Amino acid sequence: MHASRRRTNFGSVGFVYCVAVVVVALASVNRPNNLLVWIFAAMLVALLVSGVVSGAMLLRLRAHRIEPRRARVGELLVIRYTLENTARFMPAFDLHVEERGLPLGLVAAGEAWVLHCGPGDTVHAEAVLRPSRRGLHRLPSFEVWSSFPFGLLRKRLIFERPSDVLVEPEVVPLLPTLLARVARGGLMGGVRASVEVGGGEDFFGVREYRSGDSVRNIAWKRLAGTDQLATIERSRAVPPRVRVVLDLRRATDALRVTGGVDPRTLEEDAITLAASLMALADRQGDEFGLTVLGLEVAAIPLRRGHFHRAKVLAALAAIDLDQPRDASASLRDSAERATILFVHPDRADTTVAPSVGWNFTASQLATLRLPLERGGNA
Amino acid sequence: MTLLRQHRIAAFLLVLLSIAAFATSQKDLVLLVSGGAFAVLSWYVTEGPRGRTLPALVSNSLILVLLAWTLVSVLSELDLTDSTAVLGRFLLWLLVIKLFSARTVYEDRQRLTLAMMLVVCGCLETVEFIFAALVFLFLALSIWTAMLWRLQASYEAARASRRRDGALLPPPLEVSVGRRVLPQFRRVAVASILAIFVGSVLGFTLFPRFGESRGGRTDSESVSGFSDRVDLLTNERINESRRELFTLRWLDPAGEALRSNRPIYLRGAVLDRYDPVTHRWEALRTSNAIRAMRTPRDSKFVALGPGIPDTTGGVWTAEITMRSLATSVLFTVYAPFAVATDESYSVAFDPATLLLRDVGTDHVGRYWWYALRVQPQPSPQMMESLQGSIDPPRSNVSFPVAGLEPIARGILKEASLAGLPTAQDVRDDPSLRWMRNRETARAIAGWMRGGRFQYTTDLTEFRVERDEDPILAFLERHRFGHCEYFASGLVAVLRTLGIESRLVTGFVAIEYDDALEQYILRESNAHAWAEVRTGDHQWTAFDPTPEESLVQISERNRSFVDRFRWIYDRVEFLWNSRVVAYDSAAQATIADRVQSEWRTAARSGYDAFRAEMRALVERFSLGRAALFWFGAIGLAIIAAFAAWFVARRHSLQTQRRAGLSSLPPQEARMIARDVAFFADALDLLERAGIPKPAPRTPREHVQTVANRAHAAGVAFERLVERFYQVRYGGHRQSNSDREETRDALDRLKSALLSGR
To answer: Hey, what long-range contacts does A158-161 have (CB within 8 A, 24 or more apart)?
Structure first.
């Protein structure tokens, strides 16, 4: 990919070097000393050679940003670049790759550096960014620069290649018994009868014995009655189901908060808590779904697995809190059997739905977090 | 990573080289050994198995001590003339302390800067060739090291940028390196060094100069050698340099080279004015009758004066071949009447002193070879034709130092001169004056050579009291010194006695090479003696310095190295003549020469072109239409060349884009003709923002294109299929195939455009 622009900068080293060149020039004029004159000439030419070499190195350099994967607040984002030197003879050394105009939510945490890219070579480099804010961030452009050979001049190639990165909300490790308490052992359970045969414990039915069936599963009573071997079938184990309902019906400035608390932070914490709850459910093998109240976000059905989790987190990442809210939104009654976890930014609101659920608030995030000594992170 | 590991050793060598260069500029062996030893020790300590470094507190304390010591030594001596040397020594020891500090990029940068400053300090001290050679080596190595340092600094910075952020630990930096990094780095570094060297030669040549260069000797140096002024207040020890400056072949009238039974004096400067305030001998610059002449190219002799009488018989020839002395002076044997040079030179002849000098109009370097015809005992007619009425004898001769007369009288008495004409005799018969001059000078010179004075080049004990003249101190108290004191003493005594005399500096030829039949003149053969007027146009040389002392100097320090010295001396001569002595006159000469050569070359080329064209017009009878035909043919040739250039460039691009570089050139060219459409397609995709990375196969890229724009993907797939057929299936494109690929290209283009 060709560079959009080329720039040359004069760094502090180059400035100091120029001062030194001027000093040597004055000394060689003041004291007729041809050796000093020669050194002055060499220093001056070195400046030119520096510009020519670094310019020639970058003349036929192409760079490409490999589309970054999803990022998550609290985890580092590695962005990879491909650098291709299409020159026939001139190698390139000391190539730095940097993102330009990083959005507020992304902070540079490690630059990409290439020691050498020979003529005809293609090398890869990776930079590290630290996402600090959830949402869709745009990487407008990146630059490849080098100050080789002497560090006097900095030549830059600017590649205007906008690219979007979806930063998922932070997933905080929560107390592992949290869901067990509210979903499994509790009254609401969320457990349902399975309609599929599986390796669970519940009775599903009886069928004719087939060769290979375990003797443990033989229906002995039936054998006694009919004198025919039959096998007991068990229903498939069905995980608990959790639906997280994120209550964002109230506008940010209408949240009921005490003084000193930033309502937007509370909303973000609520999103983080919702993401963490679903991540915990995913980790424990539960099925989970997401409903966002107050914003135009499609409800995500109950599923489980890696892709489902990514889908849910992406939905949370894409939430735009500046959109107008629908204060009248409510959770519709459905035949869905699941434990419902309401996450509110400010206070619990029991009018949100007719059914019974567990209410969490954003301020509980700290208390629900797994302590550090038990494996939680900072 | 091997490349990065080279940085430390290169930086260390650079520092070592800077220490060696500065010590060489100071001619201080102790500094070289001690500084070098500490530097080597630092390598063992810091890079050894334990890898220890000085704590910052200790190194900073040492630096403060060094600074205090330097300040104290400067303030105690208050000699600011040697400030560069003091600064250099301070930098050197600072550098040594820094060598024991931690090896970080920051410290490396400091060491590099200090080494550079140290070398610049050395440059302010000397311009000698051996030092210059070290400086050039230093420059080359510093370019290499700066490149490595740049890589090392970037590596450290990239590593440091991946710092731990709370619980987040970035992945470690993986250094991306292409193929054949070391050879390519060497290639770039060597090319940069060469470019800088060539560019610096150009810059050196064009740098504006406003005066004469000092010719390679700094004032602070105390090495034996020729000088056109004599300063009697430098009480130092003079090192007897064995540097071979030039050779002299002394040819008798028959043209046979032979060794003279007496030393041959080669005159370089005539100093006839003594300043009693500065205690310095200088030349009187009053002669308005200097004759300028141009010597012919073919070594033919040119007479130095009009009406030179017939010199058949009794003419000797002195042939001088310069080896390592850059000077505009032509050293002459008394008295020359003709000169020849190997190339054409502008020569100025001073009839008053019979000295020759190159007035430097045509040549950057100084003489390589010149010859002089001389009469050792010139006839009055010869001298009259050379000098004319210039420099008539003076009647009132005196010496501007008070208190010399009683000493002179005492010496005269001690010399026990008998039978000399008295003043009354001279007044009665002026012709007796010259005999009186000669005999007096001979007697006093002989008296001085008679063991009363000691010859030495160590004048550290030669202390002169306040308001005491060094000549008086030499004659009265010390009675030791070198040739300048002997000659000054003789001239002073003679002038006090009313005898016209002057100081002459130059060389004395003593060392004779029997195999080559020539004298070797070294720096230690530089000499001073006296000349006394012994006729209206006649001066006679008298040397009060004991001859055995001159022989001893010549014999002293002789070693087998002298046999090979000429190699080094030759290079040094080139350095001195082409670089050190390069000044505004030489610059103007080069400019004139280049301008005239360019003009000549352009004119001759244009004439040759016109002649060829005329011949063509006549051969083909083109007449007046020739201009049209030539223009048309020229345009056709240019167009053909441009077409060939564009086609070749396109073919090379196609080969590169289609990955044909690994094929034999013939096959690559053939396939490139058939797969140009593929390169065009890749260009289209790249412009549309879907470039194909090199590692991705065309088929894989089809999928990427299809994901971005389905129609484009379909069109591109057809092109890729055709590309595979041609590239790997040996398929040759027919006309219909070409039509098909053209259609696919059009479809791809329109699909990409509509996709936008």
So the answer is: A158/A3, A158/A4, A158/A5, A158/A6, A158/A7, A158/A100, A159/A1, A159/A3, A159/A4, A159/A63, A159/A65, A160/A4, A160/A5, A161/A1, A161/A64, A161/A65, A161/B689
Q: Are A148 and B150 in contact (CB under 8 A)?
A: yes
- Distance, in angstroms, between B85 CA and closest chain A CA? 15
Interatomic CA distance for residues B750 and B754, integer angstroms: 6
Which residue among B155, B161, B200 sits closest to A38, beta carbon to beta carbon?
A: B200
Predicted local confidence at residue B312, as pLDDT: 60
DSSP code of B474? I
Residues in Cβ contact with A313 at an 8 Å cutoff, skipping those fewer than 6 apart:
A70, A72, A168, A169, A171, A275, A278, A279
Same domain, residue pair B56 and B201: yes
Closest listed residue to residue A75, CA positions, set B166, B226, B708, B634: B166
Cβ pair A108:B161 closer than 8 A: yes
A99 in any annotated domain: yes
Domain count along chain A: 3
Contact yes or no for A339/A284 (Cβ under 8 A): no
Separation CA B128–CA A2 (nearest Å): 52
Contacts of B176 in chain A (CB under 8 A): 83, 113-117, 123-125
Separation of alpha carbons B359 and B196, rounded Å: 33
> Domain range spanning residue B16?
2-159+183-206
Both A320 and A218 in one domain: the answer is no
Count: domains in chain B: 4
Which residue in chain A is spatially nearest to B169 when comparing CA positions? A76
Asked whether B334 and B374 are in contact (CB, 8 A), the reply is: yes
Q: What's the pLDDT tens digit per position in B545-584?
A: 888 877 777 676 666 766 777 777 778 777 877 788 787 7
Picking from A42, A62, A118, the nearest residue to B180 by CB comes out as A118
Domain shared by B552 and B661, yes or no = no
Contact B178 A117 (CB under 8 A): yes
Taking a C-beta distance cutoff of 8 angstroms, is the pair B331, B358 a contact? no
CA-to-CA dists, residue B693 to A99, B689, B727, angstroms: 20, 12, 19
Q: Say yes or no for a CB contact (<8 Å) between B132 and A35.
A: yes
Structure confidence at residue A187 (pLDDT): 44
Instruction: Summarize pLDDT for B440-469 with one digit per residue, the tens.
Output: 888 888 888 887 888 888 777 788 777 788
Same domain flag for B686 and B591 = no
Q: Is the peptide bond before A149 cis (omega within 30 degrees of 0)?
A: yes
For residue B319 the two structure tokens come to 């042939």
Both A228 and A258 in one domain: the answer is no
For residues B347 and B401, is the Cβ–Cβ distance under 8 A?
Answer: no
Residues in chain A: 378
What SS3 state is found at B727? Answer: helix
- Tell me, what's the pLDDT at B504? 92
- What is chain B's length? 756
**CA separation (Å) from B685 to B672, B693, B698?**
19, 11, 12
Q: CB-based contact (8 Å) between B374 and chain A?
A: no
Residue A230, domain extent: 203-234
Q: How confident is the model over B365-408, as pLDDT tens digits?
A: 555 788 998 887 787 778 888 877 777 777 778 888 888 888 88
Identity of the residue numbered B619: R
DSSP category for residue A333: P
Tell me what ipTM this predicted complex has: 0.83
Residues B198 and B235 in one domain: no
How far apart are the C-alpha atoms of B457 and B452, rounded to whole Å?
A: 17
Omega before A378 within 30 of 0, i.e. cis? no
Closest CA to B705 of B681, B721, B727, B726: B681
How many CB pairs below 8 Å do chains A and B form together?
A: 206
